[in-house]
Amino acid sequence: MTKRAFLIHGVSGSPKKHWLPWLKGELEKKGFAVFAPQMPNAKNPKMDEWVNCLSKIVGKSDENCYFVGHSLGCIAILRYIEALKEKNRVGGAVLVAGFSDDLGRKELHDFYTKPIDWEKIKSHCKKFAAIHSDNDKTVPLKHAGIFNEKLNANIIIKHGMGHFTSEPQTSPKVSELPEALEFVLKMVE
């Protein structure tokens, strides 16, 4: 059965930004069918819209489905997994600069109106990885520890990678993220 990968961007993001296009190409070279949707209302995201969008794109989930999220894309993926029916499974999720609360930002609050059901998420997915940077001004490093504690996620802490973006004003400009590719490929093994 074909391996499928779903790449989910963050707030005000796009599947054409940062390292997502590079990862899409690399996964396609490895035989994955890759889906990198433009999420609805990216500047004013709503959890139900993003989870419904993911549900439609994925269709029937199975253990050949792998997810990679950036920033808000991480909680969208976790909320999608949390909403799966009891017997549904996915192969794994890589969370890049993800977070477990709304970071005090109003535009993120809709994704945190109810507590995260970590046990339910783990019942649908056994393999998690989280990639964080030691100088991310958006997401405190403590979230890596939370993902490790709650999801038993493999953690990589990168030095000086900021929020893993390639915007002109950011330094460094992150247009490739080999660790995300490596984690997905390890999850498939």
Number of domains: 1
Low-pLDDT residue spans: none
Strand percentage: 15-25%
SSE run: EHEHEHEHEHEH
Name the CATH architecture: 3-Layer(aba) Sandwich
In the CATH scheme, the class would be Alpha Beta
Sheet having the most strands: 6 strands, parallel
Count of separate DSSP helical elements: 6
Would you write up a description of this structure?
The chain contains six helices and six strands. The relative contact order is 0.17. It has helices at 20-29, 47-58, 72-82, 118-124, 142-151, 178-188; strands at 4-8, 33-35, 65-70, 92-96, 128-133, 154-158. By secondary structure, it is an alpha/beta fold. Strands 2-1-3-4-5-6 form a six-stranded parallel sheet, sandwiched between helices. It has one domain (4-188): 3-Layer(aba) Sandwich (Rossmann fold), CATH 3.40.50.
Short description:
With 189 residues, this protein is an alpha/beta fold. It has helices spanning 20-29, 47-58, 72-82, 118-124, 142-151, 178-188; strands at 4-8, 33-35, 65-70, 92-96, 128-133, 154-158. The chain contains 6 helices and 6 strands; from the N terminus they run E-H-E-H-E-H-E-H-E-H-E-H.
Question: What attributes does this structure have?
Answer:
6 helices, single chain, alpha/beta, 189 residues, Rossmann fold, 32% helix
Q: Topology of this protein?
A:
Blueprint: E1 4-8, H1 20-29, E2 33-35, H2 47-58, E3 65-70, H3 72-82, E4 92-96, H4 118-124, E5 128-133, H5 142-151, E6 154-158, H6 178-188
Parallel strand pairs: 1-2, 1-3, 3-4, 4-5, 5-6
Helix pairs in contact: 2-3, 3-4
